Amino acid sequence: MAYTRRDVSTLTATEKRRFVRAMLEVKRRGEYDEFVRMHLDYYTADGEEGLRAAHMTPSFLPWHRRFVLELERALRRIDDSVTVPYWDWTRDRTAHSAPWTDDLLGGTGRRTDHQVMTGPFAYAGGDWTISEGVTDGLFLTRDLGRARNPFDLPSRADVEWALKDGTYDTSPWDSTARKGFRNKLEGWGTGHGTSSWLNHNRVHRWVGGAMLGGASVNDPVFWLHHAFVDLLWTRWQNRHRDAHYLPERPPGPGSAQHGRIVARRQKLPPWDETPQSLEDVSRIYRYG
Ligand code: CU
Ligand code: CU
Fold it and tell me: Can you list the residues of the chain whose pLDDT is less than 70?
């Protein structure tokens, strides 16, 4: 039977404790750092060579759907009552709301070096030492809302702007695509600074610290954020019943995107699945 992923603001004290305990155990076993490494390995950008499976690409959504599922499986091997909660950042919009409480993810970092000092993932607790980072820092960092130069999380209207686009993705299928649900949600905009960070990308920026780069998985909020992004994809699918993942077929040899993106029925590395096989996961989980 399908299990349910819940809004993080509705979890009971026991549910929060069990989620945290399972996360710390995945970390203790060394499995967590493999997730961080894998995300770093798949952090290929437009300007680089090779296949883009995870970012700036149509398969951004199925890749992260499968990635969150993998962490969830690791958590459920430890405690099968646990699922990955989602953080609805259109509703919980401050540095003190869910999920930034001491009984869950802890709060923002201290002023000097942005080190997270509260909650179960604070370095001093001894359970969350960063070993796979883009810097040598051993501790988790955050700068919620970017205290010195603040900006807001994406709004409900920003999400609606993406959800109402009935086309999954369009040429040129990268970070410069101006139409299509995928990039409107992934959030590569035009111009410079805060106004160019939309939806998914803007949330990474708002959390700051570890969430800024390829090692963003080091902050456990990564999973809560991507569970919500995944929920938004599900909402889009429900709203546009006849729409599907695009492109349907791989771009030909004449295209700049030849060999760089994953078409609907092509293998989505590193898994033996395709974007099509990941379009319907209703037998595995649903959102409550
Ligand atoms: Cu990612
Ligand atoms: Cu992300």
Answer: none
Contacts of 65 (CB under 8 A, 6+ apart): 230, 233, 278, 281
0.90 surpassed by pTM = yes
**What pLDDT is stored for residue 133 in this prediction?**
81
Closest ligand (CA of 39): 1
How many A from CA of 55 to the centre of ligand 1? 6
Q: What is the Å distance from ligand 2's center to 202 Cα? A: 9
The pLDDT of residue 135: 79
Q: How far is the CA of 36 from the centre of ligand 1 (A)?
A: 10
pLDDT of res. 171: 97
| Residue-level pLDDT at 181 | 98
Domain 3-287 has CATH 1.10.1280.10: yes
Q: What pLDDT is attached to residue 98? A: 98
CA 130 to ligand 1 center in whole angstroms: 18
Contact present, 210 and 113 (Cβ < 8 Å): no
d(Cα 275, Cα 179) in Å, to the nearest integer? 20
Determine the distance separating the centroid of ligand 2 and the alpha carbon of 254, expressed in angstroms: 31
Q: Which of 179, 176, 173, 149 is nearest to 161 (CA)?
A: 179
pLDDT for 245 equals 98
- pLDDT of 134 reads 79
**Which single residue is written with the structure tokens 């370095």?**
123
Distance (angstroms) between ligand 2 centre and the Cα of 226 equals 6
Nearest ligand to the CA atom of 197: 2
Q: How far is the CA of 213 from the centre of ligand 2 (A)?
A: 9
Closest CA to 104 of 82, 129, 80, 131: 82
CA 200 / ligand 2 centre spacing (Å):
6
What local confidence, expressed as pLDDT, does residue 44 receive?
A: 87
